[in-house]
Amino acid sequence: MDNCLFCKIVEGSIPSNKVFEDDSFLVFHDIEPAAPTHVLIIPKKHIASMNDVQSEDFAMIGELHRVAQDVAIKLGVASTGYRLINNCGPDSGQAVAHIHYHLLGGTKLGALVQNSQSHA
């Protein structure tokens, strides 16, 4: 995608502070961190959002979760806990139309949504 910020980061035309990279994924530090540890995990394949994931991408999404687990261990937040977030669409706050996950940790994270009828 010509105008995709994350595709430009993947191709190297925009620099990033990389944590991990392989043939399928790139993990880099968020430039506006919301926690002491805040990285973005993206597939190198351009997919606009979770709504655009096709059946042939399901295995890749599973592998992305393995990468998240490995990165959490590498960054030292696996044992104390971390949050893995995927925003999908404008109402969720998705700012870049390239599927990505935020991995946040390094502090006690507060509740995202409080619902008095939810006990989950």
Question: How would you sum up this structure, described in words?
Answer:
It is a single chain. By secondary structure, the protein is of the alpha+beta class. The chain has one domain (about 5-105): 2-Layer Sandwich (HIT family, subunit A), CATH 3.30.428. It contains two helices and five strands, in the order αβββαββ. The protein has helices at about 5-10, 60-75; strands spanning about 20, 25-30, 35-45, 80-85, 100-105. It has a five-stranded antiparallel β-sheet with strand order 1-2-3-5-4, covered by helices on one side. Strand 1 (about 20) and strand 2 (about 25-30) form a beta hairpin. The radius of gyration is 15 Å and the shape is globular. The model has no long low-confidence stretch (mean pLDDT about 90). This is Histidine triad nucleotide-binding protein. One of its GO terms (molecular function) is catalytic activity.
Describe the protein's topology.
Elements: H1 5-11, E1 18-21, E2 25-29, E3 37-43, H2 58-74, E4 82-85, E5 101-105
Antiparallel strand pairs: 1-2, 2-3, 3-5, 4-5
Q: What's the quick description here?
A:
By secondary structure, the protein is α+β, with helices and mostly antiparallel strands. It contains two helices and five strands; from the N terminus they run αβββαββ. Strand 2 (25-29) and strand 3 (37-43) form a beta hairpin.
In CATH, the architecture is 2-Layer Sandwich
Task: Give the CA-CA distance, first to last residue.
Answer: 39 Å
Give the overall silhouette.
globular
CATH topology: HIT family, subunit A
Overall pLDDT confidence: 92
Radius of gyration: 15 Å
Low-confidence stretches: none
Helix content: 10-25%
Structural class based on helices, strands and sheet pairing? alpha+beta
- Give the count of helical stretches: 2
Structurally, the number of domains stands at 1
In N-to-C order, the SSE pattern is HEEEHEE
Per CATH, the class reads: Alpha Beta
Beta strand count:
5
CATH superfamily: HIT-like
Strand percentage, roughly?
Answer: 15-25%
Report on the biggest sheet: 5 strands, antiparallel
Question: Which strand order does the major sheet show?
Answer: 1-2-3-5-4
